[in-house]
Design goal:
This protein is of the alpha+beta class. It has helices spanning 3-18, 28-37, 40-47, 163-167, 243-278, 317-326, 347-353, 358-371, 489-494, 496-508, 514-524, 543-551, 554-560; strands at 67-70, 79-82, 88-97, 116-123, 126-129, 133-134, 142-148, 173-180, 186-194, 206-214, 223-234, 290-292, 298-300, 328-329, 355-356, 376-383, 388-395, 401-404, 411-414, 434-441, 446-449, 469-471, 529-538, 565-577, 583-594. It is globular. Helix content is 25%, strand content 27%. The chain is built from 13 helices and 25 strands. Residues 81-238 form the CEP76 C2 domain. InterPro entries: CEP76 (IPR052299), CEP76-C2 (IPR028926), CEP76_C (IPR056288), CEP76_N (IPR056289), CEPT76/DRC7_peptidase-like_dom (IPR056290), Papain-like_cys_pep_sf (IPR038765). Residues 1-48 form the CEP76 N-terminal domain. It is found in: Cytoplasm, Cytoskeleton, Microtubule organizing center, Centrosome, Centriole.
């Protein structure tokens, strides 16, 4: 039934028949009476279908039982399980406006391929992606995202985060807007860090925000559009903070951050002056201390790298290198002629766009290798014809230096050439494409190359020798250190490459990739500690049966019942699937401890 059409016809007819010449307008009651008299209201009520929702039913007695959350704003009711003992932030995107670049965009016909916008979110190790919507001046975003607020807190499983606790969580919500054209090519439109804690001072824990998105790169000062955002706390806050308290906290944090940035800038200037005093020619070396992100903000290069764990998506460091290699390579776009536009993307912007420059690839690969427990660094230098380039280097516990080319996935072992050797002595011929190196860095260290020559071929990568590498103060490069528990998550993650290597060896009779695992374990086990590992193989998936078999092994029992000082246990399981429900299951138990005997 065309409800709107019928209503328009009856209202027009009513106005023609009942509006007297001396009467200026009909009241709302007159119009409703006319609709009821014609039977329209009864017809509409018959057409409506009411959905019975079980949300309002009494909750089960167990406090841990997830309840159903219903998004009543959507056309279709959508439900998701939430834990009633945890605190969530529900973020809704209720449309966009003023995307003026698409003002003349025609409305797409049904089934027609068109350019689309996709909104990506990241908050405390949680990532979300909206449904693609056609590009328009007012894009029809209508998505909701349920963000767990204290996801990273350990030991708070039975404790509800209150307003004061959440006010101390300074992580913003990173929002990245991606445009995908009809050929599947992606473009980074905007990157925005949303401060969500204003909701803690709002009445009923609900607030509406208007977010102005700015462009990226050379257009970082130009607005590209506006998003309407609604924030809501679940469960509702028992006690909200005053807006004055929230604003004061945010102002203090901004002030503290600005002071830290100022102090680092002062220190970096002093470090650079000292570096130039060693040798004036150092001014021409590629020593990169700051780099501009997609929003045109200068950030220390160390902030672009952080240990990143891929969970069960990537088994080994070499697989991680392959993953980074298949991401697309694209230089930052430049308007007009001239040189290369500098733009180092944040990890989220790079991953959402699925392509980036060599620096983006190198930062991501270095982050992944750090997650595997390797001592990894990003190298900034040049390759053939003096073209600036970035690649990754890992330092083995035995002193082996390995270069990883993030754009191709190739690995090269570096053997330094001694320029003092007589000409008749045979020197190793480098296979890598790198010519010079100015500096190396990761999330905790920054070192400038102060050797007489910056040629990679003759460089010695003994990073502890301050006569060859000038370090920055570790206090100046602040890093967040995680807590360790009896079952150590990081040690468990380090076991993944070993299990993948065992299955690869069974399949191909070739042993590969075990060097990185051994190196990571040596770094994860402190001096004076002992590491024990026990791998075992099954061809079935019954966990109870597999664990009972493991316990019958004296080696496994020795690990699980290990006694000593600072004992840390780890377990990792990897299932390799084959046709007809066949599988190969590898389990590895491990421990590290300091012996008290």
């Amino acid at each position: 039934m065309d409800v709107h059409g019928r209503i328009r016809e009856i209202l027009a007819e009513t106005i023609r028949e009942e509006l007297a010449p001396d009467q200026q307008q009909l009241s709302t009651e007159d119009l409703i009476k006319a609709l009821r008299r014609r039977g329209i209201i009864d017809d509409v009520m018959k057409e409506l279908n009411f959905v019975t929702d079980n949300v309002d039913q009494e909750l089960p007695s167990s406090p841990k039982q997830p309840v159903c959350f219903t998004d009543r704003q959507s056309t279709l009711l959508k439900k998701t399980n939430i834990d009633p003992t945890r605190r969530y932030l529900y973020l809704q995107v209720l449309g966009g406006k003023a995307f003026l670049e698409h003002l003349q965009e025609p409305e797409p016909l049904p089934g027609q391929v068109c350019s689309t916008f996709t909104l990506c979110l990241h908050f405390r190790n949680q990532r979300f992606r909206s449904k693609p919507v056609p590009c328009a001046c007012e894009p029809d975003f209508h998505d909701g995202f349920l963000l767990e607020v204290h996801r990273e807190s350990l030991g708070d499983g039975t404790r509800m985060a209150d307003s004061t606790t959440m006010l101390s969580i300074s992580d913003p919500i990173h929002m990245v807007l991606i445009k995908t054209d009809i050929f599947g090519e992606t473009t980074l439109v905007a990157s925005y860090f949303l401060e969500w804690r204003s909701v803690l001072g709002s009445e009923n824990g609900v607030t509406n925000l208007t977010v102005e998105l700015m462009g990226v790169g050379t257009e970082s000062k130009v607005a590209v559009g506006i998003l309407n955002i609604k924030l809501e706390m679940y469960p509702a806050l028992n006690q909200t903070l005053s807006q004055e308290v929230v604003n004061t906290q945010l102002a203090l944090e901004r002030q503290k951050t600005a002071e830290k940035e100022r102090l680092f800038l002062v220190y970096a200037k002093q470090w650079w002056r000292e570096y130039l005093q060693i040798r004036p020619s150092h001014s021409s070396r590629l020593v990169k201390i700051f780099a501009q992100d997609e929003n045109g903000i200068n950030r220390p290069v160390c902030s672009y790298v952080k240990p990143l764990r891929a969970g069960r998506l990537l088994d080994t460091p070499r697989q991680a290198a392959r993953f980074v290699n298949v991401l697309g390579y694209e230089r930052a776009p430049v308007i007009g002629g001239g040189g290369k536009q500098e733009q180092w993307c944040t990890l989220l912007a790079f991953l959402c766009r699925n392509k980036g420059d060599c620096e983006d690839h190198a930062n991501l690969l270095c982050s992944l290798l750090l997650g595997y427990g390797l001592e990894a660094f990003v190298c900034v230098g040049t390759k053939a014809k003096g073209v600036p380039h970035a690649w990754v280097m890992t330092c083995g516990t035995d002193g082996t230096i390995t270069f990883w080319e993030s754009l191709t996935g190739h690995r090269y072992i570096h053997k330094s050439t001694n320029p003092d050797e007589p000409p008749v002595a045979e020197q190793p011929k480098p296979l890598y494409p790198y010519r010079t190196v100015g500096c190396v860095f990761n999330h905790q260290m920054f070192l400038g190359n102060c050797q007489p020559s910056d040629s990679v071929e003759v460089c010695v990568f003994d990073l502890n020798d301050e006569s060859k590498w000038k370090p920055m103060s570790e206090e100046a490069i602040k890093s967040d250190l995680g807590l360790t528990t009896v079952w150590e998550d990081q040690l468990s993650y380090l076991l993944s490459p070993a299990l993948a290597s065992y299955e690869f060896e069974r399949t191909t009779s070739i042993s590969a990739g075990n060097e990185e695992f051994q190196d990571a374990i040596r770094r994860a086990v402190p001096d004076g500690h002992t590491f024990k590992g026990f791998p075992i193989h099954f061809v079935y998936r019954n966990a109870r049966r597999a664990f009972a078999t493991c316990l019958r092994s004296p080696f496994c029992e020795e690990i699980i019942c290990c006694r000593g000082d600072q004992v840390r246990l780890a377990v990792r399981v990897r299932v390799f699937t084959y046709p007809e429900s066949a599988c190969a299951v590898w389990i590895m138990f491990a421990c590290k401890y300091r012996s008290v005997l």
